[in-house]
Amino acid sequence: MSASGAKQRLMSEYKALQKEEWVNIDLNDGSLFKWDIALMVINPDSAFNGGYFKAEMTFTDKYPYEPPTFKFLHPPFHANVYADGKLCISILHTPGEDEQSGEQACERWSSVQSVESVLRSILLLLDDPETASAANVDAGVMYRFKRDEYNQKAREAVEQSKKDVPAGFVVPTTVAVAAPQSKVVEDDDFWAESGDEEDFGGSDSDDDMEDEDFEGSEEEMEETDEMEA
């Protein structure tokens, strides 16, 4: 698969997520392969309600056939979050069944997943941790048997996260976050040009193109898309 195919897919997803209110995304140094993310919890029933959790997401040029990585920069106290901020979540595991973990292929990464489906799954995981195979055993035990103490830890994480809210930015309080979608919304132009799933249709010259600086106006990004196509 060509790097240009991965870029086209990522640009399509990046533009779509720019319209969402529950997530802020910037391209790290203008690269489509490393995203700086702020994931907002907008759910009054959540212990993490009001949180503004910064994270980073990285991709390879094999995306979407290889999963991205996700890491909280300031890890909340949670059963499925490791001390280094990485997540234990099935959707980010490599494709295929895993007999050792018992995970089925449908639970793990596949090329029909998307950044949006990953982020929405993470939001659901924050409120419904998987305690049977906890990355943070203490958090898992506290969630099950000392929920009041757990909720206090969650509130502390929320207050800590608010220190990362940019000046002048107001975290929304009424945005409804739907359940995760397993299938990505496909861009007609992109898929029309891309051919079968083994080859996204990029030319050899596209593979040699260096990452463009995608910061700037919407018009500049559209012009870049036309150049890469």
UniProtKB/TrEMBL annotation:
Residues 186-229 have a biased composition (Acidic residues). The keyword Chloroplast does not apply. Residues 5-163 form the UBC core domain. The keyword NADP does not apply. Residues 182-229 are annotated as: Disordered. SMART domains: UBCc. It comes from the Eukaryota. Keywords: Ubl conjugation pathway. It holds the Pfam family UQ_con. InterPro entries: Ub_conjugating_enzyme (IPR050113), UBC (IPR000608), UBQ-conjugating_enzyme/RWD (IPR016135). This is Ubiquitin-conjugating enzyme-2. The lineage of its organism: Eukaryota, Fungi, Dikarya, Ascomycota, Pezizomycotina.
